[in-house]
Amino acid sequence: MTEAIDITNLNYRRNTKQILTNVTLQLNPGKIVGLLGENGAGKTTLMRLIAGLAKGEKGTIAVHGQTTAATRRAFVSFSEALQGFRPGDKLSQIRDFYALAYPDFSAKKYLDLITFLQIDDDQKLATLSKGTREKFIIALTLSREAAVYLLDEPFSGIDSMSRKRIISSIIRWKQDSATMVISDHYVSEIAALLDEVVIIKDHTICTHKRSDQIRREFGLGIEAFYESVYEGDISDDQF
Ligand SMILES: Nc1ncnc2c1ncn2[C@@H]1O[C@H](COP(=O)(O)OP(=O)(O)OP(=O)(O)O)[C@@H](O)[C@H]1O
Question: Which of 19, 50, 206 to mutate to test the pocket of ligand 1 (most atoms within 8 A of CB)?
Fold first, then answer.
């Protein structure tokens, strides 16, 4: 079986700063994976590299066997921050751009998502509250029928009630064979969704485990496991 994501010996520097060191990771199709780590650990950087948006890495990154940044982009739907769009752009214009740029964009899914998220796409980008902007990014990202979804702190500005509603239904917006990687600091809120957990610490992936393995081997929930790894209560040789 071809892995959805297959990373080998990835090293990445920005200027003189080492950001990721010897990252090796394999993710199978169909999984929902939590990418956890403290502020500045490198989660966004790793997602941008997988998505083909950051360049200059050493090592290999394959998404469904595609190893160049340009070819990976076609397989990966990444929750981008809409930086290329103008404040006066209507959301429906941004939708049109996505529909043109991505052959896997589903107009039906988009309509279902904006209805579910209660977004009026006749609004201009500049008029959106922070939370509505985050919801719109989720709608655009999940409207693609992509093989891999990378959601980078997708719920950060969203109120807690909406967040719970979105988290509990996110699984239905993903095809069974698609892989979804979610980074989030609200670990306890996304824990029930996760098939696997990947933790970045000290510039590298220090552990990658299935959620059931964490419960069975350590007798811990995902949030407690994550905190134990960071606090050094679980040592490297136990991974
Ligand atoms: N444009 C840049 N130039 C130089 N260093 C950068 C740049 N962008 C990020 N970094 C550095 O790369 C490291 C990883 O940052 P990154 O944003 O990937 O972390 P993160 O895990 O996503 O953090 P957070 O949880 O705060 O979003 C940090 O030390 C950050 O300062």
Answer: 19
**What residue's CA is closest to ligand 1, atom 2?**
14
The whole-model pTM stands at 0.95
Place of tokens 């509603």: 165
Q: What is the pLDDT of residues 137-168, one digit of tens each?
A: 999 999 999 999 999 999 988 999 999 999 98
Atom 1 of ligand 1: nearest residue by CA position: 14
Q: Which amino acid is at 159?
A: D
Confidence label for 125 from pLDDT (cuts 50, 70 and 90): very high
Residue 202: CATH number of its domain: 3.40.50.300
Structural domain for 167, as ranges: 29-52+73-238
Helix intervals (H) in the chain: 43-51, 69-73, 91-101, 107-116, 130-143, 160-169, 187-190, 211-218, 222-231
Q: What are phi and psi of 21, to 5 degrees?
A: -125, 125
Q: Compute the distance between CA of residue 135 and CA of residue 138 in angstroms, rounded to an integer.
A: 5
In a domain, 59, yes or no: no
In a domain, 16, yes or no: no
First to last CA, the chain: 25
Q: Is 39 in the pocket of ligand 1 (CB under 6 A)?
A: yes
